[in-house]
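Render this sequence as a predicted structure.
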Amino acid sequence: MEFGLSEDQRLMQDSVRRTLEKVSSLDRVRKAAEAKEAKATDVWHALVELGVPGLLIDEEFGGMGLQLLDAALIAEMLGRFVAPVPFVASAVMAPIAIAALGSPTQKEAWLPKLASGEIVAGVAIAERSSGARESAGVTASGGKLTGKTLFVMDFGAADIFVVGDNKGGLHIVKADAKGLTKVALTSIDLTSSVGELQFDNVEASALASGDAKAGLQRVLDAGRIMLAADTLGAGWMMIDKAVDYSKERKQFGRVIGSFQAVKHLCAEMASEIEPGRSLIWYAAYAFDHMPDEAPLMAAHAKSFMGDVGRFVARTATEVHGGMGFTDLLGLHYWFKRIGLARQLLGSPERARNDAARLQGWVA
C-alpha cells in the first residue's frame, strides 16, 4: 500500500515550521529556559493563531477536527525547534480524554476553551503508564481525590488537570481547587514543564461517560505517539546541525566532514532515525482508523524513538566535539528534550514490555 501525506498536511506542517523559525529561535528558547517559562507567550500566541491548540477538537467546539497524524506532524516541528509551549498534554491527550469520556456538559465547559488556547490542560497518568512509585497514587471516593501523582505533563501553565486514579478512572481537577498542592519538578529539559500534584480531598469531576479503561488507553497511546514524533523532530535537527558543523569545522587543514569517520557517524544517525518516521505515521494512522492496533504501534513507536533518539543525541554531540557541550551552540536543549521524552509515559523498556504483553508474550 502506498502511504504518504496529503498536500494539505504538507502545507500545514510547512506553515508551522515557518512560524517556529520566526518565533522559536535558539535565543528565544534559551531565554524561556533561563526564565523557566512553562509557556512562552509569544510562541504560544503564534501557534494559537494557526489553530494548533484545537487541532484534534471537533469543529462544533471551535476546533479543527483533524486526526492524530496531523498532530504528529505538528509535534515533529515542535521538537525540531524545541518550542517551549504546552502541546502533548494540552492539545492532544486532554482533548482526547474529554471527547472520549466527558459528558455533554463537560465537553461544552472545556473543549472550546482548550481549542481557543484560552486555557491549558495538564495530564497526570504517570502511575498508570510508567508503573506505580512508592507513596504515589490517587484514590477517588465521593467525587474527591486523595494522594499524589508525579510527572504531570504540561504542568506549569495548566488551568485544569486530567488526573488518573488507581483504578484507571480519569477526572478533571481545576488548578486552583481547594486542597490541591502543586510542586514544580526540576527537569533536565527546561523547555518542558513537569510537576507533582498532591490531593487532600480535592473536588474532582469524573470523566465517566464511556469505557474508562479504553479511554485511558487512548490517552496513553496518543501521548506516546506524540512524544515519539517530538523526538523525531529534535533528532533530525541535531543531525542537521551536526552535518552543517562538519562542513565548517576544520582540522589538519580540512573540514571534518571530509573525514570518513565523521561521514559514517552522520550517515548512521540518518539511517537509524528515518525508519521512525514511517513507524510514527503508521501508529498515528492506526489510532484513528485501526484502533485495535493502536496500543501496540504506539508502544513500538515510543520504544524505538526512545532508544534511537538517545543514540542520535549522543552521536550528534560527538560530531561537534568539545563545542557540543557548550551553551554557545545550544545542543543541550535538544539533547535534554529527547532525554525527557524518552522517560515520560514509560521508558523504552516499559513500552516494549507493554508490546510483549499485548501480543501475549508475557503475563
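Summary. Residues 7-116 form a domain with the Butyryl-Coa Dehydrogenase, subunit A; domain 1 fold (CATH 1.10.540.10). The longest strand covers residues 144-153.
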